[in-house]
Protein 1
Amino acid sequence: MNNRKIKKVVIAGGGTAGWMAAASLAKLLGKTLDITLIESDDIPTVGVGEATIPTLITLHQLLKINEKEFLAAVQGTFKLGISFENWRDVNQDYIHSFGWTGKDCWAAGFQHFWKKGLDLGISEEFGKYCPEWAAAKANKFAVLSREGLNYAYHIDAGLYAKFLRKMAEEHGAQRQEGKIKRVNLNADDGYIESLLLESGQVIDGDLFIDCTGFRGLLIEQALHVGYDDWSHWLPCDGAIAVQTESLGEPIPYTRSIAHGAGWQWRIPLQERVGNGLVFSSKFWSDDQAIDCLTKNIEGKPLNDPRVIKFKTGQRRKHWHKNCVAMGLSSGFIEPLESTSIHLIQRAIVRLMQMFPYDGIRQPDVEEFNAQMKFESDNIRDFIILHYHVTDRSDTEFWRHCRNMEVPESLTHRIELFKQTGRVFKVPTELFGENSWIQVMLGQGLMPEQYHPIVNMMSDAELKDFLVGIRSQVDRTVAQLPSHADFIRHFAPTMARD
Ligand SMILES: Cc1cc2nc3c(=O)[nH]c(=O)nc-3n(C[C@H](O)[C@H](O)[C@H](O)COP(=O)(O)OP(=O)(O)OC[C@H]3O[C@@H](n4cnc5c(N)ncnc54)[C@H](O)[C@@H]3O)c2cc1C
């Protein structure tokens, strides 16, 4: 144990990760801590990261963020899921929605009832039994007080950082402008003592949060914790990002459109669309990727396409000595399921749960690292699933993805679902059964059998059961306004000023 008491927290970096950490710590622990955030106007943030998942709402509730003010400030729209287009095969689409599909029984999930119905010719498309799926398809949305929809947000990343900065400063966090030139380590124990800025100023602290982006200035460049590279499982290593003018009303879901050697995102905000293409440099050059994206965007570009390079994987330790890495400095899983902001949030909450006021204890550090690794490994498997289980064989990239080796843990899940229709969520992993089922079915993996408990229902009872769920979904969706109308009344943007 290191007995140094933790009073002064220094956050290096002011992107989404830095300001999320500053706002959360200042709001929830600020009275007991002295918080400084250092960022450099000369080093831009990554500037992407605009699709979220429903867990963000939990953090916002904890921080008592007013949803209307937040949405208006960040040009926010609502997100009910992700539409995966051309993933299973060209011209085949499915939606991974945030909702729950159908009704389970104690022994078997809804997919077993649906599968028997399919064999009998009485089941409709799996998603039709899920209100979020049906609302997304109908372009409808509302925040309902009872039996509401599960949703997340699309946000402008730059405006979100501004929003959080205001909150952090209101709760006492100090912003320090300046470029970090050197990380000073204690000669005896290797802990970080201070950061030297180019101006010559020295910022000392007890605990350092590395939010410096891919460079990992503290956790890697100074503390050398090492990196687990996952490129052999997730071959994409580059992205092109460009913003465009909106052509129509925003839709309530993210679009992920697969192409020859990667995929394209479309994230609709209130007044513009975030676009990008994630691709593998083994199969496409930057020029080919830019060409593909340029041909597939709608609306006038608002900036020049930007190329971002990355290596998928994670730091061997997220917390080492008195440094905790959050955001891109801790690792990166490509944005297919919009999980990075979630991982920042999890790191913040975990750190607060284990906050080392009286000195850093190694069991806390190990627990923190084990939990972050467990969560990242499960997300990694879920992302690989989208690439690996596919009927696509039209390009070298897709043939590579179909044939590549995948982690044992994923092979087991795929085989279990294929042979038995069963899916089990590992406690504390992010994606639940319904997410795995939607993606496995969507990617073309059909269970060979259903659980025999389904046979306790007669065929007529099964039909009534399925029709009943559909009617309930239809009733829920019928009462909803259009997504655009809802936003216009709920939280129109203030971003123009
Ligand atoms: C292509 C792409 C798409 C993505 N899409 C999504 C998405 O849809 N959803 C999602 O959840 N996540 C997404 N992400 C991830 C998301 O963008 C990041 O998790 C998030 O933006 C956090 O970034 P960051 O704050 O860690 O790093 P950055 O934004 O890179 O910020 C780094 C900060 O460190 C500062 N800094 C660096 N070096 C120094 C220095 N020497 N001195 C002083 N300051 C310094 C910089 O000034 C900056 O403020 C995406 C990422 C990529 C690459």
Note: The chain has a mean pLDDT of 96.
Protein 2
Amino acid sequence: MAEFRFDIKPLFPLEIIKVTSNLLPHTFRGDRRQCLDATSKMSEVIDRLGQLSAVSQGLNKPVTTAQRLRMSENQTIYLLSDTSYGANGVVMGLLKVGTKDLYLFDEQGRTRKVEQTPSILDFYIHESRQRGGLGKHLFEYMLTDQNWTPVKCSIDRPSEKLLNFFKKHYGLVRTIPQANNFVLYEGFFDEEASMGNGNGKSPAQSNGGMHITSSPNTQLFGAAYLGDEANKRSGRNNGSQQPNPLLHQITQISPSGRYGAPRPTCSMAEIIHAGSGKSGKSGGSAESSRIK
Ligand SMILES: CC(=O)SCCNC(=O)CCNC(=O)[C@H](O)C(C)(C)COP(=O)(O)OP(=O)(O)OC[C@H]1O[C@@H](n2cnc3c(N)ncnc32)[C@H](O)[C@@H]1OP(=O)(O)O
């Protein structure tokens, strides 16, 4: 577990605290000197957990650093602690989420621009505590806090462990293929199940944020269906559903998973999204594509 040279208890008056770009626990109250001390220590905590997460996922650079959080406009990190452990307490996990403007394929293979998509960006529980329910505990805290539902979340290049996590806890298996690094589950575009997607509106309602476009994405890629293996495993075979003709144009752009086959090095999606360097404005994986 992540132990520190300082006592973490003042930073963690609650088991789970959240941190945004000010690098302070959401519970923080103090004067300027205490503020500087807290941000310095919190930066150390975030950098350490981000590094552990990267190592755990086999990434060559962390997705999460204090510096990146400081520069972000709309990201939140949730940190899970055990202050009763040892003299200084320990930090056991990290969950980073944010909202992003994404170009996404819907289930019919049409390209949509979805603004402020809830996104799971980095998730880590210390190896010594994995598979003990802590990940679910932290994730549920975040869902309640953000007013999100799992099916409305996009996931930035999920690991196999995280795909298993979504399957086990939320029964989510069938994905909607995308041309970027994000994984969506079937139901993402369903309006009736849409409350709790960040701002309490469905994507279609969110400030007119979803547009069905005539983007060349759809013409280039058609409907790339990535969920076949997962769908087979789930035992669902579309039953009486007629196959969507667009699915015959299948282009296997990327399997769902962080370690999948290489994605095309040049795609219209990348060209379209290349200009959006601003944090939270991305059609690709802003968190991970820059660092791998
Ligand atoms: C967008 C991204 O962040 S992708 C990267 C996700 N993070 C990682 O892969 C880092 C390493 N893994 C972890 O940190 C954790 O396993 C997490 C965050 C994915 C889940 O946290 P946990 O505390 O393990 O989750 P929790 O105990 O609530 O649920 C366990 C379930 O998660 C899945 N899971 C967790 N670890 C594994 C594993 N080693 N192998 C396969 N499935 C796993 C399984 O479905 C497991 O259920 P099971 O034990 O009955 O098979």
Note: Helices lie at 32-57, 66-71, 134-146, 160-170, 216-221, 228-234, 268-273.
